[in-house]
Design brief:
The protein has 10 helices and 13 strands. It has 325 residues and is of the alpha/beta class. It folds into 2 domains: 201 residues, 3-Layer(aba) Sandwich (Rossmann fold); 95 residues, Alpha-Beta Complex (UDP-galactose 4-epimerase, domain 1), CATH 3.90.25.10. α2 links the parallel β2 and β3.
Length: 325
């Protein structure tokens, strides 16, 4: 039984839509038949290159602006009759180790700005992107949606606070908002530049540019890696079905240790050299494996095998990272 109208012919705002997950979502929304997709992104780690195909359709508009600023969102809502918002705006987890206060504040401010606009009736439905990081290290496995929230970084704490804001606004004002909680996404377009890059892209970039891969800590930290196309597919399918105020995990129901992951990347890129050992990162989550029971009960849930997804991802980096002569 569907809860919401279809996304077809809707005008949709995607905050953070030039980023990794956001840009893939933009592409999918256009394919689903959205009338127009409006993107706001400050390009902190996102890139206009991620939206080349979407912008070429004439059905997407990019505002290089900041959703943390309520005035920026007010301007967009004055120009476009927005029906639905997908909130993908955030700053990378690694950023919280550099600027912890701002990493926290970004997640909270964007959510509150959108909820206030929704409370005023300026759009109908909100899909808010959370993160598996709100759970912290697993107290029990697999982690379901009732798992305690125990964020270990200010990035995760800000995400947890934003989740609670969504839930409280739904209860207080009867808003139509729900939460999707992807685990560790990987795939094409994930930022590979600088210290804010995730483990897969930064390792690929190092190997492709003559660098050396790094292992922080013992490498026994585990993650539940999900291919970005599978996340986007699930989110679009869940849109019609998620009750207001509810949340759902999106993951693979599997886990890979960082040490195993580095070995797979090195093998995939033909590297058999040394791996630099570095101290473990403080507040690093130790283990992540999610329960998919809820999402499987709601939609036809399809997952890409990790080896296949990683191979496609590494092929994308090979094609898009400039290799020194």
């Amino acid at each position: 039984m569907t809860i919401r109208d279809t996304l077809v012919n809707k005008t949709i705002l995607v905050t953070g839509g030039a980023g990794f997950i956001g840009s893939h979502l933009v592409d999918r929304l256009i394919k689903e038949g959205a009338a127009h997709v409006v993107v706001i992104d400050n390009l902190f780690v996102g890139s206009e290159d991620n939206l080349v195909e979407a912008l070429a359709t004439g059905k997407a508009t990019l505002y290089r602006d900041d959703a943390e600023l309520s005035t920026s969102l007010e301007y967009i809502f004055a120009k476009h009759a927005i029906d639905v918002v997908f909130n993908c705006a955030t700053k990378a987890l690694n950023y919280s180790f550099l600027n912890p206060a701002n990493a926290f504040a970004t997640n909270v401010k964007v959510a509150l700005n959108l909820l206030e606009l929704q409370r005023r009736g300026l759009f109908k439905s909100l899909c808010h992107f959370s993160t598996s990081e709100v759970y912290g290290s697993a107290v029990y496995e697999p982690m379901d949606e009732l798992h305690p929230r125990n964020p270990t970084t200010t990035y995760a704490a800000g995400k947890a606070a934003a989740d609670m804001a969504v839930e409280s606004y739904v209860r207080m004002f009867d808003l139509d908002a729900f939460i999707v909680r992807p685990f560790n996404n990987y795939g094409p377009r994930q930022n590979h530049k600088g210290m804010l890059a995730g483990v897969i892209p930064i390792t690929a970039a190092r190997l492709l540019t003559g660098g050396t891969p790094e292992l922080h800590g013992e490498g026994t930290q585990s993650r539940d890696f999900i291919y970005v196309h599978d996340t986007v597919d699930a989110v679009v399918k869940l849109y019609d079905l998620m009750p207001a105020g509810d949340s759902v995990n999106i993951s693979t129901d599997n886990q890979v240790t960082v040490s195993e992951l580095l070995s797979k990347i090195c093998q995939g890129l033909g590297y058999d050299g040394e791996v630099l050992r570095k101290p473990g990162r403080k507040a690093d989550v130790l283990c992540h494996i999610a329960s998919n029971q809820k999402v499987n009960s709601m939609i036809e849930y399809t997952l890409t095998p990790f080896e296949q997804g990683l191979s496609e991802t590494l092929a994308w980096y090979k094609a898009n990272i400039k290799v020194p002569a």
